[in-house]
Amino acid sequence: MKKVKKTNKQLTPQQALAKKKQKQKIIKICLTVFVLLVASAGVYLGFGIFKQVEGFSKEKLLNNESSIQVSANGEEYYSYGQDGIRKNVSYDDIPQVMIDAVVAAEDSRFFEHNGFDLPRIVKAFMGNLVAGRITGGGSTITQQVIKKSYYPKEEQTIERKAGEIILAIEATSQTTKQEILELYLNKIYFGYGNKAIGIYAASKYYFDKEVQNLTLPEAALLAGTLNSPNKYDPFKNLKLAQERRDTILDLMEMHGYISKEECAATKAVPVENTLKSNPVSGSGKYQAYADKVTREVFEKTGYDPNTTPMKITTYINTDLQSKLNDISNGDGFKFPDKYLQTGACVQESTTGRVIGVLAARDYVPMGTTYAYAASKENMAKSGNYRYGQRNQPGSSLKPIISYASAFEFLNYSTAHYVHDVPYSQGEWTPSNWDKKYHGDVSISEALSQSWNLAAIQTLKEVVNKIGTEKMTEYLKGFGFDMYNEKLSLGYAIGSWDTGISPEEQAAAYAVIANGGTYIEPHTVEKIELIETGEVINFDETCQKEKVQALSPESAFMIRDIMTKYVKAGTGAYSALNLGYQIGAKTGTSNHDKHAPNKSLVGKSKDLWMAAYSPDYSWSVWVGYTAADQKKGRYPQTTAANQISALIAKYVHKGGLKNSYPSKPSDVVSAQCISGIYPYVAPGSGVPSDRIVSGYFKKGHTPGSSANGAGLNNLTAFSAAFTNGKINVNFTEYDPKSMTESSTPTKVYTINGRSWTLPYLGDLSQVYGKVVYAIDITDQNGKIVHSEKLSTNTATLNYTPPAGTYKVTGYYAFESGEGTSNKIDQTITVEGSTQPASYTPANPTATQMSYSVVVPSGSKITVSLNGQSQTLETSGTITFSNLSPATKYTVTFVETKANGDTQTLPSHEFTTSNQSTQ
User: Fold this and answer.
1) Which residues form the Penicillin-binding protein transpeptidase domain (predicted)?
2) CATH code of 809's domain
3) What percent of the chain has pLDDT over 70?
4) Which residue, 404, 824, 849, 909, has most beta carbons within 10 Å?
5) Is 485:498 a contact under the CB 8 Å cutoff?
6) E-assigned strands of 486-539?
């Protein structure tokens, strides 16, 4: 049947009117809700702005205190005010040319507006819109003064911007333009480090002159730095500074402050001709540590100690910092050349408190440091955070990446054996430093010898079990910055995408010393904002936010291995065997085919030594800058080891203050057979060289006991007596390799090449190599001879007397218990025709001997006064303890193979007197 399509029912006029009214009602409700939301937002925003501006005071703008850093005992060791904001300059002492340059560069309508310049804001907004990002804020000089006094964090919010505008208008009404400009020039940041805060310090920093003596090219240079002090500092970026200065001169001409001729003439003056000698070439006594504190405070709080007065309490060890400075300056330590760079970080193991940093050789204030680095994410997003250099860790993280993770996720024992065998993935075919493979080795040997392939194969087992995502999270738990890191097996030997810093490494090794607990490294205990009295407790927060990065059991186990091979004092670790229970690991990264200089391929690039004790953890890096690498320089030195040893001696000079956490109750000692996994306990007969002791997690101890191993069945065996010798023949054992070496082996094939390497994983090979065993039993059931043969066909090294014998053949292990099935063969040895006889010796006072010939298959019994002795083969028989000068009779009876007997003639003799020779 054909379906009929339904149509909507026609509405009546009354229904249509009702529907229209309903729609209008809905629209009214929506508009009402919208208006209420906007009004609520306005009220909320207005309240927020009101709370910001209600406390405005002119005095707050005039606060000129500077920040300081103090040690934990309250002693001031660093101030941000040297030649800076502590010495203000009055407006009358500022030359007009400086005023003109700043106004032209920063706020051309400064003397006209009321603190807020609407055209400037609109222009900045349009520029940001075109650029698709914030390129400028359009703030007036007055707004910048407000921002530095009231909004030191410089958050980009609508509330903040609105409050800033209102306060700027209020400030203009309560102060003069001259006061505002004076405040601005005495607070603003003009350059690199903390030595150019305010116009007075900047004049000294760049030109070594008083403010009132500044000239046009100098004023234009200073005004140019305000936009980006670090970027346009001529001591760092001369070309950029020259270009920026000339831009300011153009602005001054455009706004009528100088003529076209003055502009051109001033541009002709090179910037370098106006500067004094470079003040950035050196740093203060504690500059390296102070700069780390400054960066830490800014990254954690958004406050800049250079512009926001504060008291910063830190954990600096001034004696240690001085020692690290001496090392960096080559005072008491000799570097191989003037180009080699280094960085180091020292922290307390149990608290995360950084007590000293070796930032670099020839370190300059706020310069590049090799001890720590900015967040990778911040470095990727903002140039303001670009400081510090990370480097490839080489093997220095193998204990954490490969072996601690195996304890954690695979429940390995310290007695575990890992596989140092070939590996290849695509074009990547890693090797060991000695260009050899070592087969199955203990974790201790793998670490102390730094075998690459063992670390790679172990990490492979871990990743196969837990996956790369969980492994990445594991490394994050140790404090490693994994931003944009793509985990691969290369991480086991240091092939990171962006590398690590000594600070990260020292903090990670503190985890092992601290029972598996990670505490973020930090230099600051607390900061106190001088203007508000607010206290921010850094250390308290770090201690609360500590993370259990590794179980106490796994931390104990990797620590046990590391401290033991350091205590053994071999190789690079001998310098750290100081009696402080130190654990350590070296590391070397090498240049690959992408090296900046072709001659560097395969040469070392980064050298590391990371170490820890119950009290401290520290990490040292040495290497060359990218510029020096291009010139073919590469490190050939033990400097990292030497510096590490100097640090160890210095921080422990008073002895240990702490001890490692005790052995967890879930860790037990046990024995197992080396190389067998799952673990097997050794039973009777297991060779001692295959028994190892170690620590195991409860629930993962050896689950069975080996008392012998099975061997293949012997299928055929023969024995024959030919030409006076016994010849035997066995079926050859399969596999033959088990009969050829006492060390079990396995063949590994990679890329068409094969290697035969030690392999301990076959329980059947625990007892050594397989041999061909023989037992010979006489007709009385006595085994008269046993022999183990290395070949399946042989002539025995034994000729039995005449008689019938059972020859038994079987497979056996060279050492230990366990045999195959046994096969018996019977042989007959024919007797000799030589008759029985004896030959007496000369008697002494107490002894008589006879040389007796025993025919094959017979035995002779010799008797004297009830004493009897029997010979089955020809030999000598002796009677002792006889009396002197006494007559004796000896009898001889032969018993033949068929049981018949024959009596030989007896023999009489008389012993001699005692005095007779």
Assistant:
1) 345-643
2) 2.60.40
3) 84
4) 404
5) yes
6) 517-518, 524-529, 535-537
